[in-house]
Amino acid sequence: MSELFNEVDEEVRREQLKKLWDKYSIFFIALMVLVVAAVGGWRGYQYLEGKKAAEAGAAFEKAAELSDQDKHAEAEAAFAELAVKAPSGYRTLSRLRAAAEAAARDPKAAAKMYDDIAADRGIGGEWQDLARIRAAGLLVDSASYADMQQRLEASAEPKSTFRHTAREMLALSAWRNNDTTAARKWLDAIADDGETPPGLRSRAEALQALLPPVAKS
Q1: According to DSSP H, which parts of the chain are helical?
Q2: Which of 78, 87, 136, 159 has the most other CB atoms within 10 Å of its CB?
Q3: d(CA 83, CA 102)
Q4: Are 136 and 172 in contact (CB under 8 A)?
Q5: What is the model's pLDDT at position 64?
Q6: In terms of C-beta density within 10 A (0-12 exposed, 13-18 middle, 19 or more buried), how is residue 177 classed?
Q7: Verdict on whether the full-model pTM lies above 0.85
Q8: d(CA 138, CA 136)
Q9: Distance between CA atoms of residues 62 and 56, nearest Å
Q10: 87-112 pLDDT per residue, tens
Q11: CA–CA separation, 30 and 7 (whole Å)
């Protein structure tokens, strides 16, 4: 008797499953099709992105070779084109390299290119800091100390990645503009930072020696 009930229950369950399948099978099949299409689309996207990155990498290498061959105008044009068309990672690198190539022919124009990169919040803080440093390096011999201070003071903060270079340029700018108080401030910051590179520390000590002695009260 129990076996008969089990067979009846099994038959009822099959009948219920068949009804559910007949009612909802179209939705299940549609879902499977969507899943397969989504996976295929993602794989296709990955392939295309990988292809674009490989092409951009090859173009970047060719532009770098032009630079190594002292074909700076051609290299600048190649990097400028990549800065527009390449995937995001290569785009930022190409903008920086294009500015570097422009520096040989027109430092002020190159500084403006770096300033544009520094103002772009979409590329990340460290890239912006690097662009500020590069721009300031091109202008340190001609800009006022106030201009250099505005450009670099944030980059000279204790936790900044490029603080050592920023402090050196600020000290040099202050010295060139006869602001000995500011020069000492930045030279002291260099001397007091235990992570200051040895070469920079030596240059700072040499610059310190050029400053007039502090007047005794």
Answers
A1: 2-68, 72-85, 88-103, 107-118, 125-139, 145-152, 163-176, 180-192, 198-210
A2: 136
A3: 14
A4: no
A5: 86
A6: middle
A7: no
A8: 5
A9: 10
A10: 777 889 999 999 999 998 899 999 99
A11: 33
